[in-house]
């Protein structure tokens, strides 16, 4: 029996990841920032699949809380699973800020740094003592690190940093046989970034028209990709950026 910890697992892509992994027989620790009721519903959905799940509050932007969060993970492992470690860490939590390069201010930049780069960096540090040897880390990037769409300069820069960090983590954690990869979704129909891809027909059509498979992505496309990468068959993939975009802007 394996356990995955997914940050931002109460909504959107994180929720789909949690449910797909539960379908594969994996138990879940998921985090939420403020949506307790949404997180509780995911826990109930996972229980209906016959798996165990725990929801813990976490603000990935506040690294000062990570010691306390790691302690709460340790307690949850002991209380729910009678274990001292877990198997998979998925650094998924994030937000979207759309702002042209010349109009991005320092507060927006700092918020994106804290959530998308500093947060995963130091949270992984704090949780790695609880991740078993031979486990895996999966970071989440974006197709925007490969193709450039105006308004995403700061966001994409943070994700580019995570792609470099992933290679360094894979190199340095190899002595513990921990594989580290990063998954880069393309445009997905969720409420991320205000739900523009989902709700704006013109944007949706533009992106679908520039995707080889003829549509934008759905949350289950990414949930399925995460389950694939964390499967037994994916264990020899290490230090890689994998894009799941249906072939955007090829």
Tell me what the structure shows.
- The chain is an alpha/beta fold.
- 43% of the residues lie in helices and 18% in strands.
- α1 packs across α8 and α4 packs parallel to α5 (153-173).
- The chain has helices spanning 12-23, 36-48, 66-81, 106-127, 153-173, 196-199, 201-209, 219-229, and strands spanning 2-6, 26-32, 53-57, 86-91, 131-140, 179-185, 241-244.
- The chain starts with a strand and ends in a 6-residue tail after the last strand.
- A seven-stranded parallel beta sheet has the order 3-2-1-4-5-6-7, sandwiched between helices.
- The radius of gyration is 17 Å and the shape is globular.
- The longest helix has 22 residues, at 106-127.
- The protein contains eight helices and seven strands.
Category from helices, strands and their pairing: alpha/beta
Number of helices: 8
- Secondary structure: number of strands: 7
Give, in spatial order, the strands making up the sheet with the most strands: 3-2-1-4-5-6-7
End-to-end span in angstroms? 39 Å
| β-strand amount | 15-25%
How would you characterize the largest beta sheet?
7 strands, parallel
Q: Tell me, what's the shape?
A: globular
Radius of gyration from the CA trace?
17 Å
- Multimerization status: single chain
Overall pLDDT, averaged?
96
Order of helices and strands: EHEHEHEHEHEHHHE
Estimated helix fraction: 40-55%
The low-pLDDT segments are none
């Amino acid at each position: 029996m394996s356990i995955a910890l997914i940050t931002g697992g109460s909504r959107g892509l994180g929720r789909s990841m949690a449910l797909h992994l539960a379908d594969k027989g994996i138990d879940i620790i998921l985090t939420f920032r403020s949506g307790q009721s949404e997180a509780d519903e995911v826990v109930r959905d996972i229980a209906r699949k016959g798996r165990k799940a725990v929801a813990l509050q976490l603000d990935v932007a506040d690294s000062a809380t990570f010691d306390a969060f790691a302690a709460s993970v340790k307690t949850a492992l002991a209380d729910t699973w009678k274990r001292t470690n877990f198997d998979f860490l998925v650094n998924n939590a994030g937000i979207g800020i759309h702002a042209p390069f010349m109009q991005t201010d320092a507060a927006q930049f700092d918020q994106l740094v804290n959530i998308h780069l500093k947060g995963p960096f130091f949270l992984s540090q704090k949780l790695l003592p609880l991740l078993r040897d031979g486990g895996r880390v999966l970071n989440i990037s974006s197709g925007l690190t490969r193709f450039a769409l105006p308004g995403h300069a700061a966001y994409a820069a943070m994700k580019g940093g995570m792609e470099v960090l992933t290679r360094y983590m894979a190199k340095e954690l190899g002595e513990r046989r921990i594989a580290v990869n990063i998954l880069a979704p393309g445009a997905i129909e969720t409420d991320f970034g205000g739900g523009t891809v989902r709700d704006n027909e013109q944007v949706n059509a533009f992106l679908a028209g520039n995707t080889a498979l003829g549509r934008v992505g759905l949350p289950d496309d990414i949930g399925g990709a995460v389950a694939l990468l964390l499967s037994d068959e994916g264990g020899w993939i290490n230090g890689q950026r994998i894009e799941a975009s249906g072939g955007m802007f090829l």
